[in-house]
Amino acid sequence: MTEKDYAPQKSESKKMIVSAPKETMDLAPVEKEKPKETIEPKGENVEKEKPKKPIVKNPIKKKTEAVVNAKGLHISTKHSMAICKFIKKKKINDCIEYLENVITKKKAMPMRGEIPHRKGKMMSGRFPKNASENFIKLLKSLGANARENDLDDVVITEAIANLAPRPRGKFGRVQKKRTHVTLKCKEQKIVKKVKEKKK
Could you tell me the pTM of the whole model? Predict the structure, then answer.
């Protein structure tokens, strides 16, 4: 016996589904959900969006001083301290001119200690050639920095010489000479104003 003899109703229902028209088989189109509208709260306490202010860049401030920093120069700290003391509160060009005379041994650099006496307005002095040559380079660099910052009629306000780390020579027998030097200069007008305020 076949399956049709066992369940004739099932076979009829299968035929019915197959013979059904396509229109009844199509499902209804699914409606897309609409985005929910956001309700803005009303009242005085609600903060309103503030208009953005335009970004203003800070104007570049004019520099009032020029600086030169030299690290680990191969010069004597004692000689550089004497030169720093001499060039302080003087003009750059005058200092360069004097140091050139020191190199040619026309003028001596005033120094303290057990040092021979020299001619001129000093008690004792020397002719530190190596230190003078290095200081001339630094003073020229300081003058260039001052011109770059539009500074006129400049005076050296700070001149500092400090000991730097001193390396040793072969087998540690000799300790080399090393010095840090810092030079600063300002316009003469500013220096005079500061002095008047202090008085």
Answer: 0.67
